[in-house]
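Consider this today:
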Amino acid sequence: MSSNYIFSSESVGEGHPDKVCDTISDAILDACLAQDKKSRVACETFVKSNMVVIGGEITSKAKLDYNTIVRNAIRDIGYVNNDDVFHADKVFINNYLTSQSADISQGVDAKAAKGKATNEQGAGDQGLMFGYACDETPELMPAPIMFAHRVGRALTRIRKSGKAKWLRPDAKSQCSVRYEKGRPVAITSVVVSTQHTEDVSHKQIHDFIVQKVIQKVLPKEMLNKKTQYLINPTGRFVVGGPQGDAGLTGRKIIVDTYGGMGRHGGGAFSGKDPSKVDRSAAYMGRYVAKNVVAAGLASRCEVQFAYAIGYPDPVSISVDTFGSGDFTDHQIAQAVRKVFSFKPADIVRQLKLLRPIYGATTNYGHFGKVEDTKIITWERTDKSNALKKAIRS
């Protein structure tokens, strides 16, 4: 890629149909882990109009009222208005959850089984995962996705505060950032589409979003007279949420990660317990990449590793610093192997993943949340010194 370019990333609000599904799936996961930390959960959700479908595989000692969990999740999002077709108290819920396959279970369990190579906990599936970090923002995340999340988060905060009663839950944001010599220098456009009530004008929406949201949360030095603001560009967004579009768990994987700046292995996160390396190993990848950048070994780092189902060790680990490192990628990869263990059981233990923490990850990205690293442990940079020592040893 040229060192001069424009890159765009999007975010979606809690009321977006796909995020409604992610929220419900993670609420069920958290409810399971709160009662039984050994729960195996793979919960998918589908929503459309006034219907919610939950399905997948759950093996747990937890005793749950799934209907109450679903309705509470929808209520917390804000679908409680009398004119909402999709309403927390009125949706029809269809439950198609069954127990985990015994064949998969024996591969994940930390015990011997016929045909299994080891008695260690294995990966819950084959697959490849990526982790990414860069020094463009204080969170060590790409600027476009962090800016898009800021806009979306602010919009939700205002809506839930009641300061703009015409705001409704469904929303999307998008930021385009101009790079010069590989560094972000200006925001060229901001797109916001937000659901609203019938009784508000387009001009009122436009002015409010620009003045009270965008210009309040985005860096002033990156906004200028040439910045384009596209607010509800269709002119009307009254019908939204699951009434306007179907939603499905795991369909916003680029929003959930690096906004397209870093690669993605394809596995979704929400509704999956940490025995699923789609989720836990992706968190580990972020943890590793962030510590590499925090240690000053590179200004940009992508880590990739892959697993075979039922087998504990990754079948490959690679590091790419895109020429931004003071050491070779091979040297950094060797240091990473010395400092971190990528076995699923070690990932779960090191990042403390057997806790009901996943509702905090669902919206506005699973990465870049540095406010509480006791919960979002993969955002810590506590291994940076160990990496510095390892690369020089």
Remarks:
- The chain has a mean pLDDT of 93.
- The CA atoms of residues 106 and 114 lie 9 Å apart.
- The radius of gyration is 22 Å.
- The chain has eleven helices and eleven strands.
